[in-house]
Design brief:
The protein is mostly beta strands. It has one domain. It has no helices and three strands. It has a three-stranded antiparallel β-sheet, with no helix packed on it.
Length: 81
């Protein structure tokens, strides 16, 4: 289950996103409550939350959460099968 999410349109890309506790999907499950995360970006033609065949995706994993100040470059460079 995702800890945080940001919804953008393709027109918004490329985008800079700052991931922090304010984006938590549930107040008790924040980014600062875990040590590492997997960051996933997905372009979905259907707009559905769950990945579907044909969606475009990119992943960076693992990413240490505590004191993370680096700028990460995530490329959407794979097709979901």
């Amino acid at each position: 289950m995702p800890l945080a999410a940001v919804r953008l349109t393709v027109a918004d890309l490329p985008a800079n996103v700052i991931l922090d506790d304010s984006l938590a999907m549930q107040p008790q499950m924040t980014l600062s409550s875990v040590d590492e995360v997997e960051i996933i970006a997905r372009v979905s033609s259907s707009g559905e939350l769950r990945p579907q065949a044909g969606d475009l995706t990119g992943t960076i994993s693992p990413v240490a959460v505590q004191q993370q100040v680096d700028i990460l470059d995530l490329s959407i460079d794979q097709i979901v099968e």
